[in-house]
Write a structure and sequence with these properties.
The chain is about 40% helix and about 15% strand. The chain has about 450 residues and is an alpha/beta fold. Strands 1-4-5-15-10-11-14 form a 7-stranded mixed beta sheet, sandwiched between helices. A 4-stranded parallel beta sheet has the order 8-7-6-9, sandwiched between helices. Strands 2-3 form a two-stranded antiparallel sheet. α2 (about 55-60) crosses α11 (about 235-255) and α4 (about 90-95) packs across α15 (about 365-380). It binds pyridoxal-5'-phosphate. Pyridoxal-5'-phosphate binds next to α6, α12 and α16.
Length: about 450
């Protein structure tokens, strides 16, 4: 009997008990994060005003497996384990011998992978007695995930949402409010840096770097508040590995191992969450030919055009300095609809792995991502988030290469979220109003001139 399985599932009892920490297996340790003022390696005491101690420990831990607290697993069980799908209808449409698999994270209450870390972060803050958390959000996915997690543990949430997305995506703000959070457009009049930006340009579209500055300033100006970041940092990628660990078990169930793992990258958390448990096999030499492709927008080409340097995590130079590919902390990317991919930097873990040659990067244009997203909707049914469409574009391109070469490669990608709250973007595309943005070379060169002078 031929196997025509579409959906591979795990039982709740198979929910992983540990997150995987790649820092245990890196051939060279990560370069240290630096203090934004002293430029010396950060100490736990430097980070204590921002994060609970458990997360600070996870940030620098080199233990391979870190136990997931039962309270966090209990919330995960509301939607996890998530299923692995074989995209048979897409394969047929593309007429490709490639086998395409995707792990679908859009089934979480906020509709993306983001609650995998939001729930853990809200939990550790609550445990340390923190009453309130401030954060930034791009497309609103992260803000809504943290709002949901705050509601789970009774923690108050304040969200600075990148202005352009706040107005493009009002439903994300309403979701946050439904979960009890307070969301304002960034730049906002609530902080010094926000007021300065508004005075210089009342129509400033905002950026993730700027929204981070506002959330950090908010945190530093109050005693009852911690800060939370939805991507980039090591502990965030750690929490996301629950997805890759599930995917590994499910690929075994399907009797397959991927030749290529693909994810879209903003700060890098969903892609890394899927690929880190697989990159482990490349690091230890068991799967030397595994390819990992991180996909980003041409309009914000961090991994494909940025230098590997020390840069500030935010525009106002208040957040830690990280070693990463960067377009410069002052870079304001064009207002593409994939708001979650408009960050000037990238997770140091992803940058380190790329620098060492374990992963590769690719940039795609906005219009071709929507074309891929529509093909996916008309074959597999899911209306994907604009961020996720970047991964889908690369998947389709790889599958078409297989059609040319006749190779039956196994491709696995992370479907990071649905686009039900992105209908304005779909409307713009379907009515021919969406445009591509060229690589903004001059703006990037200008912002790279202001990198920190690290000794
Ligand atoms: C659906 C979705 N996918 C991907 C991303 C990109 O973030 P990251 O690279 O941290 O996964 C976002 C960010 O908001 C998102 O909402």
């Amino acid at each position: 009997m031929s196997d025509n399985t579409v959906k591979y599932t795990l039982h709740e009892r198979d929910l992983p008990r540990y997150w995987y920490n790649v820092q245990a297996d890196l051939p060279e340790p990560l370069p240290p994060a630096l203090h934004p003022v002293t430029m010396k390696p950060l100490t736990p005491a430097d980070l204590a005003p921002l994060f609970p101690m458990e997360l600070i420990k996870q940030e620098v831990s080199t233990e391979r497996w870190i136990e997931i607290p039962d309270e966090v697993r209990d919330i995960y069980r509301l939607w996890r384990p998530t299923s692995l799908f074989r995209a048979r209808r897409l394969e047929k449409f593309l007429d490709t011998p490639a086998k395409i698999f995707y792990k679908y994270e859009g089934v979480s209450p906020p509709g993306s992978h983001k609650p995998n870390t939001a729930v853990a972060q809200a939990y550790y803050n609550k445990k340390e007695g923190v009453r309130r958390i401030a954060t930034e959000t791009g497309a609103g996915q992260w803000g809504s995930a943290l709002a949901f997690a705050g509601a789970c543990f009774g923690v108050e949430i304040k969200v600075y949402m990148v202005g352009v997305s706040y107005y493009q995506k009002p439903y994300r703000r309403i979701m946050m409010e439904a979960w009890g959070a307070n969301c304002v457009p960034s730049p906002s009049p609530d902080t010094n840096i926000g007021r300065q930006m508004l005075a210089a340009d009342p129509d400033c579209p905002g950026s993730l770097g700027l929204a981070i500055s506002e959330a950090v300033e908010d945190t530093m100006s109050r005693d009852d508040t911690h800060y939370s970041l939805g991507s980039v940092l090591n502990h965030v990628l750690l929490h996301q590995t629950i997805n890759g660990l599930e995917a590994k078990k499910l690929m075994e169930q399907a009797g397959e191992y991927p030749d290529i793992v693909i994810g879209c990258v903003g700060g890098g958390s969903n892609a890394a969450g899927l690929f880190l448990p697989f990159v482990k096999d490349k690091l230890d030499g068991t799967r030397p030919n595994l390819r990992i492709i991180n996909v980003e927008p041409h309009s914000c080409p961090t991994l494909t055009k940025g230098p590997h340097v020390y840069d500030y995590g935010d525009s106002a130079k208040m957040a830690p300095i990280l070693k990463m590919y960067s377009l410069g902390h002052g870079f304001m990317p064009p207002p593409i609809h994939a708001g979650g991919l408009r960050y000037h930097g990238m997770a140091p873990i992803i940058c380190h792995l790329q620098k060492l040659g374990y992963t590769e990067a690719r940039a795609v244009h906005q219009l071709e991502t929507f074309e891929a997203g529509i093909t996916f909707a008309r074959t597999e049914g899911i209306l994907s988030a604009p961020e996720t469409m970047h991964a889908i574009r690369a998947v389709i391109d790889e599958a078409l290469k297989c059609r040319e070469s006749g190779e039956a490669k196994t491709i696995l990608f992370n479907h990071s979220g649905h686009g039900h709250v992105d209908m304005a973007a779909y409307d713009a595309y379907l009515s021919g109003k969406l445009q591509d943005y060229e690589y903004p070379r001059e703006k990037i060169e200008e912002s790279l001139a202001d990198l920190p002078k690290v000794g």
